[in-house]
Amino acid sequence: MKTAVTLVVSPATSKSISGMLNKYIFFGDNVEIQDISDKTCLFALAGPKSNQVMMDLNLGELIGQPYGSHKHYNVAGNPVTVAVGSVISEEGFSLLMSPSAAGLIWKTILSHGATPMGSNALEIYRIRQGRPAPGSELTDEFNVLEAGLWNSISLNKGCYKGQETVARLITYDGIKQKLWGIQLLSPVEPGSSITVNGKKVGKLTSYTAGNGGNEHFGLGYIKKKAASKGDTVVVGDNVSGIVVDVPYLARQQPPSVSSSKP
Questions:
Q1: Is residue 48 classed exposed, middle or buried when 0-12, 13-18 and 19+ CB atoms within 10 A define those classes?
Q2: Would you say 132 and 252 are in contact if contact means Cβ atoms under 8 Å apart?
Q3: Radius of gyration of the chain (CA)
Q4: Residue 145's CB: how many other CB atoms inside 10 A?
Q5: How many angstroms separate the CA atoms of 244 and 204, rounded?
Q6: Distance between CA atoms of 178 and 202, rounded to whole angstroms?
Q7: Using 50, 70 and 90 to split pLDDT, how confident is the model at 256?
Q8: What are the C-alpha distances in Å from 113 to residues 48, 50, 104, 105?
């Protein structure tokens, strides 16, 4: 294909997204949807030393560039795409490559001081950062604005699926709940109710423990008028929690009134 767009999506939603996109391809359209998951590998480089690793790899030209900026490189005859940002943070970098190049690139990254992150550590980092995830914070029960993903939408581009819904939510102040971080006193199961003064005001969607099990943290949706930063809530069976900001959502920028107008 002469022109292609690569979409990085969750493994849990790849089939549903492919199916949705195919519904909007009409007879005669020169467009094809392909799932290339088995033909690609994606590495995420995150943390305070990410920039130094990029410098050591002679990829420093991407440091400081806007989120989503990317360049194509060649490693031992294999194409590699490097982009600013990753699936868990707008900081750091993503590296997309073929499986044949993955082993060499993995070893090279580790040789420059990067530390492998397992799936458990990745989930802890995601929750601590406040990154919504499919199946937890991103479900049919909640919309993109309630999830706080302002940087992921456009109010000025042409027609797209969900545009009218997003516009109405903003125009008529229809965002009734918000995703927050919650500092908890003890473990709580995701799905537990969040209450204030005995009244249900939200739902816990993710939970993780840290510091050897001595710290407890979660993400949850809370009605806007019920609680905000610094307020105390009760989660599940009488577990106290404090509503706090999380880094990923704190970096999201809601549009100003003027910028939301056509």
A1: exposed
A2: no
A3: 21
A4: 21
A5: 14
A6: 9
A7: low
A8: 12, 10, 15, 13
